């Protein structure tokens, strides 16, 4: 086809991404799938992409035949294969973004069957769900189940039937544990062949990236999911290309290039494209479009690439053009059709990017991430946790970030912080942040990063409230312990039990009839001066004032802290969450005493 024709439509293979905790076997699983299925060639399909691998459905059918019959999918699968994203993990998935959604159509969440849910499992799940795409669980390392007898590349169900009963039992237990974790999260899951409703239950496929068992099942379930959910989503036109920049990299002889996943339309050599950089939209002209050569056409390692005049969605393609060094991964990229307004496309890109890069004067945190995709995932996550964001941007932590955070800190010390996700903090910036007292939180795992911050937030908040509370005289009630009068006057020194609330040096004591007794000078516990004594403690106190034991007060008397009325009212209204019910009751009693003694 020489000319783009927007009226033609086609369906692209679903773009499929693999996510999960570190070391669960994501990389090996992808390698095994590629090794097992990519060798089959399909006429008319590009088999080699940049950053993606095409898994032809025909190849899957060869080993999945019994499964297809069992699940009544034989001859009914209309997708022509899958485009597996070569780089597994959170970052790649995050960058496969488009306005309001995902460029990835399907996800495989890999869990180590012998370990079950791990930290990043939750994070991957959050990410998948925030993008709202269908997914399947690969319960990997099946071959590690004690006693498992491998059957190379066999479907799981076939191999499972050949196992001893006790081995089957262990597999079931492991699956049950995974199901239980999903249940705890309010989701339903089951071994894939027992799933009754794919809209409501997460299918779990046991796999081994080492023996290849379960890979057929995995791809059949993915096909099943695309049959159900994806047909319209997979529609591609042959209009102007739309894609996302997955990666920006320097290539010898070519300069800075962009690896792009084109999810719709056509892109041609010479096309004007618009994408996004940190300084704003970038427009440039495509100089070259590069694809890897099919393996069997590669004569020597130097001869790895082929240069295309045009490519059609869906495709992973390397673009060579000027100005790409400015571009951020995760940025949209659009072909500007001839005759269309460049300004309009610039505006479009700008709008899309400004949805992710936030700049406000709100009291909130400063969020930094390495790519537009990870930043978006971060902002979505922060919002879901109710954490306000003042600024969200791509790139290393900068002086401006520190200044922004310090401005917030003046108004609200708890939000005057920087959360750095997968980005660097240059040494001088770190020192500057210390000078401003701005805290920088860093972690490579998003939910850990946010957890560290929220933990700190809670601690600081408690401290701040304590500091605030300290400005007010708090209620307390004591009894003078009989037999513990150490000095009768000037000052009185007695042993007391704190019956309720708290007492501190400087607090004034009064009797049950409202008459003032004197001021607490010192509190001692086992001979040591202390700054407060709480309910349940027995301590010695000295009381200064015109007071004598046997006159104004005597052993066994109960005394109250004389809480000024304004303090009592503030405590009862603004700090009611910090007071116990007993302290509230005591405050009321103190107020009543004071009012009736006036
Ligand atoms: P990733 O961090 O999730 O990409 O994990 P890798 O693919 O790098 O695998 C981590 C380790 O687990 C490697 O040593 C793999 O060889 C091993 N591994 C991965 N999948 C399997 C599997 O299915 N069975 C067994 N026995 N080992 C596996």
TrEMBL record:
Role according to the record: Function in general translation initiation by promoting the binding of the formylmethionine-tRNA to ribosomes. Seems to function along with eIF-2.
Which annotated residues bind GTP? 20-27, 86-90, 140-143
Q: Which SUPFAM superfamilies match?
A: Initiation factor IF2/eIF5b, domain 3, P-loop containing nucleoside triphosphate hydrolases, Translation proteins
Protein name in UniProt: Probable translation initiation factor IF-2
Keywords from UniProt, A to Z, are: GTP-binding, Initiation factor, Nucleotide-binding, Protein biosynthesis
PANTHER family in the record: EUKARYOTIC TRANSLATION INITIATION FACTOR 5B, TRANSLATION INITIATION FACTOR IF-2-RELATED
Could you say which protein family the record assigns here? Belongs to the TRAFAC class translation factor GTPase superfamily. Classic translation factor GTPase family. IF-2 subfamily.
Gene Ontology, cellular component aspect: cytoplasm
Query: Which stretches make up the Tr-type G domain?
Result: 11-231
Family matches, as InterPro entries:
EFTU-type, P-loop_NTPase, Small_GTP-bd, T_Tr_GTP-bd_dom, TF_aIF-2_arc, TIF_IF2, TIF_IF2_dom3, TIF_IF2_dom3_sf
Organism encoding this protein = Vulcanisaeta souniana JCM 11219
List the Gene Ontology MF annotations in alphabetical order: GTP binding; GTPase activity; translation initiation factor activity
